[in-house]
């Protein structure tokens, strides 16, 4: 909340996904009032995160994209400038990802397995809470 | 008395991840060289032997990572070099138990916490002295 003006600050989301843009996740978050910038699940995500200065990163991946997703997470947590940035992982890859839930929580990474629209928005909003 | 700069070799399949190691470890005062592990360039490694190797091993079934580990352990130059295995193969690594430790291989799960990685590297290098 911006003091004195009564205006709510629009939270900036960097959406990293292999899905074509605009994606379902991007539409849901935009409809919920987030400003969404998208980046492909490919090289350059570190630079995209540093340049766009988001409030949060939402990383969407399927089980087939797990290797690339883990590299993205390694980049986001291995760079001092990005390590405190909240990250929400959205995936259908329940088995492998679930095993990392506790480890991810210690790294400030929230896991959402196959969320519906409501769970997605509330999960992202919760991850933004200090 | 000046301290000898320790040399760390990072091996990974992603240039961007290698960049993370280069920046992070360079800031900590290490000399960092990198290699894409699909190259398996043992000649280059023998020419500039590292004090420690960070090796990526993503998942069980990642033949490139496992075979690179074996090559490093079977080579006279790197057979005893401390290795830090950065891996997402959590369950598989747990099943290996003490075997990796006996091979002077330490494990850091990916994605890693910076402080944890640096502490593991410090311990691995301290064990040499």
Structure description:
The complex is a heterodimer of chains A (130) and B (129). Chain A is of the alpha/beta class and 130 residues long. Chain A has 6 helices and 5 strands. Chain A has a 5-stranded parallel β-sheet, with helices on both faces. In chain A, strand 1 (12-17), helix 1 and strand 2 form a beta-alpha-beta unit. Chain A is globular and about 40 Å long. The mean pLDDT of chain A is 89. Chain B has 129 residues and is α/β, with parallel strands linked by helices. Chain B is built from 6 helices and 5 strands. Chain B has helices at 15-27, 42-47, 63-74, 90-96, 99-102, 114-126, and strands at 7-12, 31-36, 52-57, 83-87, 105-109. In chain B, strands 2-1-3-4-5 form a 5-stranded parallel β-sheet, sandwiched between helices. At the A-B interface, helix 3 of A face helix 1 of B.
Set down the secondary structure blueprint:
The complex is a heterodimer of chains A (130) and B (129).
Chain A: E1 12-17, H1 24-31, E2 35-40, H2 45-52, E3 56-61, H3 66-78, E4 87-91, H4 94-98, H5 101-106, E5 109-113, H6 117-128
Parallel strand pairs in A: 1-2, 1-3, 3-4, 4-5
Chain B: E1 7-12, H1 15-27, E2 31-36, H2 42-47, E3 52-57, H3 63-74, E4 83-87, H4 90-96, H5 99-102, E5 105-109, H6 114-126
Parallel strand pairs in B: 1-2, 1-3, 3-4, 4-5
Query: Looking at the chains present, what oligomeric state does this protein adopt?
Result: heterodimer
Kindly report the average pLDDT value of chain A: 89
Order of helices and strands of chain B: EHEHEHEHHEH
Count of separate DSSP helical elements of chain A: 6
Catalogue the unreliable spans of chain A. Answer: none
Bin the helical content of chain A: 40-55%
- Sheet-strand content of chain B, in percent, reads 15-25%
Strand content of chain A: 15-25%
Major beta-sheet overview of chain B: 5 strands, parallel
Stretches of chain B where pLDDT is under 50 for at least 5 consecutive residues are none
Q: What's the helix count of chain B?
A: 6
Order of helices and strands of chain A: EHEHEHEHHEH
Provide the spatial order of strands within the biggest beta sheet of chain A: 2-1-3-4-5
**Major β-sheet strand ordering of chain B:** 2-1-3-4-5
Question: Count the strands of chain A?
Answer: 5
For the largest interface, the chains and their residue counts are: A-B, 24 and 23 residues
Secondary structural class of chain A = alpha/beta
State the end-to-end CA separation of chain A: 13 Å
Q: How many strands in all of chain B?
A: 5
Give the N-terminus to C-terminus distance of chain B in angstroms: 17 Å
């Amino acid at each position: 909340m911006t003091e004195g003006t009564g205006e709510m600050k629009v939270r900036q989301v960097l959406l990293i996904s292999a899905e074509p843009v605009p994606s379902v996740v991007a539409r849901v978050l935009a409809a919920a009032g987030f400003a969404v910038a998208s980046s492909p699940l490919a090289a350059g995500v570190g630079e995209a995160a540093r340049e766009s200065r988001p409030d949060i990163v939402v990383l969407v991946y399927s089980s087939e994209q797990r290797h690339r997703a883990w590299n993205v997470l390694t980049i986001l947590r291995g760079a001092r400038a990005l390590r405190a940035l909240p990250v929400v992982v959205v995936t259908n890859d329940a088995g492998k990802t679930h095993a990392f839930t506790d480890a991810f929580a210690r790294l400030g990474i929230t896991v959402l397995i196959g969320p519906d629209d409501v769970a997605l928005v509330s999960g992202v909003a919760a991850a933004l809470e200090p | 008395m000046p301290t000898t700069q320790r040399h760390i070799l990072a091996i990974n399949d992603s240039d961007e991840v290698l960049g993370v190691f280069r920046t992070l470890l360079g800031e900590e005062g290490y000399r960092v060289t990198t290699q894409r592990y699909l190259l398996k360039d043992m000649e280059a490694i023998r020419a500039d032997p590292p004090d420690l190797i960070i090796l990526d091993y993503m998942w069980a079934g990642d033949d490139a990572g496992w075979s690179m580990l074996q090559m490093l352990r079977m080579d006279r130059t790197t057979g005893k070099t401390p290795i830090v295995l950065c891996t997402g193969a959590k369950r598989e690594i747990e099943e290996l138990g003490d075997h990796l430790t006996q091979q002077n291989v330490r494990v850091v799960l990916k994605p890693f916490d910076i402080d944890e990685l640096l502490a593991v590297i410090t311990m691995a290098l301290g064990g040499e002295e």
